């Protein structure tokens, strides 16, 4: 008798759920614990590795999960998935168990195919549907700075729990892409092992056609989303991404909205986008905002770059992080107290940790005003100390591509 057969499944599920909470919170002292948790998903690991053309250490765990899932159908779902554990209990407590969806096609498989094909084009379209990233997101609620941010970080898991209370296990059984990928691994291994008979060929044609359309849809969506992302970035003046962010035409696809970066940021300057800045494709993706409490992107911190599980934020050590340009600080001399001669203010110069702001005297105009040099990284230290209200005289704006 195997170990899994001897131990009740509920005990294993509960143990894994507690372990997931410990990793994501994180209770452990390792900064990469939240990243490693999400990378355990074969769906995330495979799609992000294809999209970034790189392999991380987390892929090793995902590979073990993938191999195990190919021998036991939905092994990860049955024993390890914390989202599945929550939804299974929600289903038992549900108001009504509707199983009208039992005859619906397995959408999750085609979501997985669409995303993996999109990853080949550098934009894994629906990677954010992974259940581990959905589970991880609400743990950033303690860093949410306004009610909208609270709603956004809790939205995914809240919707799934609510839908499960009404419709039962619809998500897990029919929609979840990680479940769909496990099914494909299991049936592919079984097909290769048993060498399917020719009598199954007529059935395979319909499946192949759906696979083709899912793959074609993933490629088209990837190319469309990349062009749209690049266009919106060029038009935006305030679209600031966390340090290490890949170009905008790939960022919104690689970002899975796990909100690990939001949770990791000690300054609370990272928040999910409501869709106003980057449109529907960027909904829920992290933005930087310098708005209150004199908080800026600290020169002593690179936490957000260490916890991203997909490569949307490149892991950076402190020296490289402090060279990453978030945006560019620009001065409005029509608002600056020094330039207007209303006050001798050098708050921005004193606050800048990179010596990028200097108060300069202009002999011709006989005025002083701040000048920003090329050392500026857009950390926001100058913006948060600027005394002008309600609009700051010095602000960080999107740095336009050359």
Shape: elongated
Mean pLDDT: 88
The largest pleated sheet is described as:
2 strands, antiparallel
- Return residue spans where pLDDT drops below 50 for at least 5 consecutive residues: 196-203
Output the number of helix runs: 19
> Percent helix among the residues?
40-55%
Radius of gyration: 24 Å
At a glance:
The chain is mainly alpha-helical and 402 residues long. It has 19 helices and 6 strands.
Textual characterization of the structure:
Helices cover 50% and strands 6% of the residues. The strands form three sheets. The protein has a two-stranded antiparallel sheet with strand order 1-2. The protein has a two-stranded antiparallel sheet with strand order 3-6. The protein has two domains: 3-231, no CATH class; 325-402, Alpha-Beta Plaits. With 402 residues, it is mainly α. It has helices spanning 3-6, 9-24, 33-39, 42-52, 58-71, 75-79, 82-92, 107-120, 131-136, 147-167, 170-175, 177-194, 201-235, 248-254, 260-264, 303-307, 318-321, 347-351, 381-385, and strands at residues 270-272, 286-288, 328-331, 357-362, 367-372, 394-397. The protein contains 19 helices and six strands. Helix 5 (58-71) crosses helix 12, helix 8 (107-120) packs across helix 12 (177-194) and helix 13 (201-235) crosses helix 14. The chain is elongated and about 85 Å long.
């Amino acid at each position: 008798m195997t170990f899994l057969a001897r131990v009740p499944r509920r005990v294993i599920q509960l143990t894994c759920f507690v372990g997931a909470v410990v990793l994501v919170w994180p209770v452990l002292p390792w900064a990469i614990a939240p990243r490693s948790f999400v990378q355990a998903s074969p769906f995330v690991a495979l799609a992000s590795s294809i999209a970034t053309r790189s392999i991380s250490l987390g892929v090793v765990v995902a590979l073990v999960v993938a191999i195990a899932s190919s021998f036991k159908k939905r092994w990860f779902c049955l024993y390890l998935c914390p989202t599945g554990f929550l939804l299974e209990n929600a289903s038992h407590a549900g108001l009504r168990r509707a199983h009208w969806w039992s005859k619906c096609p397995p959408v999750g498989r085609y979501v997985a195919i669409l995303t993996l094909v999109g990853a080949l084009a550098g934009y894994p379209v629906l990677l954010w549907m992974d259940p581990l990233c959905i589970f991880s997101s609400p743990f950033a609620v303690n860093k949410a700075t306004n009610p909208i941010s609270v709603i956004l970080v809790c939205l995914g898991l809240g919707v799934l729990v609510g839908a499960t209370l009404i419709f039962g296990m619809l998500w897990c059984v029919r929609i979840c892409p990680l479940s769909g990928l496990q099914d494909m691994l299991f049936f592919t291994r079984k097909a290769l092992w048993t060498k399917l008979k020719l009598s199954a060929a007529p059935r395979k044609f319909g499946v192949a056609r759906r696979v083709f359309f899912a793959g074609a849809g993933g490629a088209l969506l990837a190319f469309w989303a990349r062009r749209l992302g690049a266009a919106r970035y060029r038009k935006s003046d305030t679209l600031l991404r966390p340090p290490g962010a890949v170009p905008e035409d790939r960022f919104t696809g690689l970002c899975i909205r796990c909100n690990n970066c939001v949770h990791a940021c000690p300054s609370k300057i990272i928040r999910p986008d409501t869709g106003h800045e980057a449109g529907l494709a960027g909904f829920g993706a992290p933005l930087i905002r310098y708005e209150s409490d004199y908080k800026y992107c600290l020169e002593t911190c690179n936490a957000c770059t260490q916890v991203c599980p997909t490569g949307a934020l490149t892991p950076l050590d402190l020296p490289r992080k402090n060279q990453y340009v978030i945006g560019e600080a620009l001065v409005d001399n029509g608002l600056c107290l020094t330039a207007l001669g209303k006050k001798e203010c050098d708050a921005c110069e004193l606050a800048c940790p990179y010596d990028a702001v200097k108060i300069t005297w202009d002999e011709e105009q006989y005025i002083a005003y701040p000048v920003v040099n090329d050392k500026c990284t857009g950390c926001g230290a100058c913006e948060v100390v600027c005394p002008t209200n309600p609009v700051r005289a010095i602000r960080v704006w999107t740095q336009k591509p050359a």
